[in-house]
Amino acid sequence: MVQSIEWAKKSLDQPVLECLGFTYGSDHVDSPSYISSELWQQCLVNPVHTLREMVGASDFLTQKDRDNAILKSEESCARVATMLITRWLDRWVVPANEVLADLPHLVSFYPWLLLDNTNLAGWKKSITDGFNGLHMAASNYSFNPKFLLPRPVVWKNKILSDPMLAEPKGFNYEGIPDLVFCEDTSSFVDFVNAKPFTSRLPGLDSQRFVVDQKKLDILGVWTPKGVAYEPSVLFAL
Questions:
Q1: d(CA 66, CA 63)
Q2: What is the model's pTM?
Q3: With contact defined as beta carbons under 8 Å apart, do 123 and 191 qualify?
Q4: Please, is 226 exposed, middle or buried when counting C-beta atoms within 10 Å of its C-beta (0-12, 13-18, 19+)?
């Protein structure tokens, strides 16, 4: 938290999207760091707003609090800016799986990125061991500043555009277990033991999965310790 606040202090007069590495607007649609208006509007009134301006325009604050206290203190302004940004990234941007993705959701679509994709243990590593379970080049595309998020996150489209990380020729899907990542237990489960649902997340990747509760006790589903992948409230059934 301290690291995030110090970063925000130094960045208060920098454009939010720019200092996070995002591009936006019609001229950058093909950029691997492009973020759609549907996503940035969940945090910003204007895409060129600085961190300080973002705080000043936030609907989460009363005008009295903004004008009389928060905007008059660099420390308070940085704290609020950190809260707004981390909440936005964790609640909207990463779950949307458009421009950024966490590792379990990434490998769910691109299993060749796993070092061991033929058994459940290899898939679990994307949850508990971070990049240690993935192709070594994947970590080159980590989102920064890393300390703004509680888990490893990558620039999804930058990974997909790297020839080293492209789907290998003749990749054998028949050897891949039929696993899906379940939002409610933060674990990979066989497709037949999961239930799909349509989330209210923006973007095209709206279908997600939860464990079939009727089978939960029987399955004895493994869940990670110390790793928080709890679902957003937008994962409404």
A1: 5
A2: 0.86
A3: no
A4: exposed
